């Protein structure tokens, strides 16, 4: 019986020592990826480029809508004098054009999303590379994003483990001052 107590005590001490060592090796940080991306100097140009692209898409859509509306109006004016077969044929053509217009609008949305991703990808890569570099340089074992969505979010960390400022410094950008209340 005494031998069992000694063995259990030795195992307990071993486990406590192992847990204490594991806690010393663990360094967790958190950052706000969205904030880092928003602070990147490239974002101003990206915003302008996206606005121009969206305006171009919107102009194309408006042109197609106006053209379609003119065709519908012309049909409505001519319909009373049209033969039944010609009227049915014209209706079918207008329905096809309306579907094409809807598809064009959907394609424009997809095109905008692709353009957004294309423009953001280099900035995102730059931020993630900086996060990885700062984590390695400062011996962090885990970094969590404050805006992780549905993913697990770290709920507590020490102030000295805040990571965003380190990445901002690595990127060479400045954090805007918060308004005093």
Largest sheet: 2 strands, parallel
Q: Number of DSSP strands?
A: 2
Counting DSSP H or I runs of 4 or more residues, the number of helices is: 5
Based on helices, strands and strand pairing, what is the structural class?
A: mainly alpha
Low-confidence stretches: 12-22
Give Rg in angstroms.
31 Å
Classify the beta-strand content into a percent band: under 5%
Taken in chain order, the helices and strands follow as HEHHHEH
Biggest sheet: strand arrangement:
1-2
Oligomerization state? single chain
The mean pLDDT is 81
What is the terminal-to-terminal distance? 67 Å
The share of residues in helices is over 70%
Envelope shape:
rod-shaped
Keywords:
mainly alpha, 181 residues, rod-shaped, two-stranded parallel ribbon
Q: What can you tell me about this protein's structure?
A:
With 181 residues, the chain is mostly helical. Helix content is 72%, strand content 4%. The protein has helices spanning 2-25, 33-39, 42-78, 84-137, 164-171, and strands spanning 28-31, 142-145. A two-stranded parallel sheet has the order 1-2. Helix 4 packs across helix 5 (164-171). It starts with a helix and ends in a 10-residue tail after the last helix. The model is unreliable at 12-22 (pLDDT under 50).
What are the SSEs and their pairings?
Elements lengths: L1 H24 L2 E4 L1 H7 L2 H37 L5 H54 L4 E4 L18 H8 L10
Parallel strand pairs: 1-2
Helix pairs in contact: 3-4, 4-5
């Amino acid at each position: 019986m005494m031998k069992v107590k000694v063995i259990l005590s030795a195992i307990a001490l071993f486990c406590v020592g192992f847990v204490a060592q594991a806690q010393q090796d663990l360094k967790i940080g958190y950052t706000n990826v969205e904030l880092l991306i928003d602070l990147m100097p490239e974002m101003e140009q990206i915003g302008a480029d996206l606005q121009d692209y969206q305006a171009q898409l919107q102009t194309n859509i408006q042109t197609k809508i106006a053209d379609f509306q003119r065709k519908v109006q012309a049909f409505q004016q001519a319909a009373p004098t049209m033969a039944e077969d010609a009227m049915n044929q014209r209706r079918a053509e207008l329905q096809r054009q309306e579907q094409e217009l809807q598809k064009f609008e959907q394609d424009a949305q997809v095109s905008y999303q692709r353009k957004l991703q294309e423009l953001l990808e280099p900035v995102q890569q730059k931020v993630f590379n900086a996060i990885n570099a700062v984590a390695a340089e400062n011996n962090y074992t885990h970094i969590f994003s404050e805006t992780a969505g549905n993913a697990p979010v770290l709920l507590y960390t020490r102030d000295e483990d805040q990571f965003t400022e380190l990445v901002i410094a690595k990127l060479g950008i400045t954090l805007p001052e918060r308004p005093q209340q």
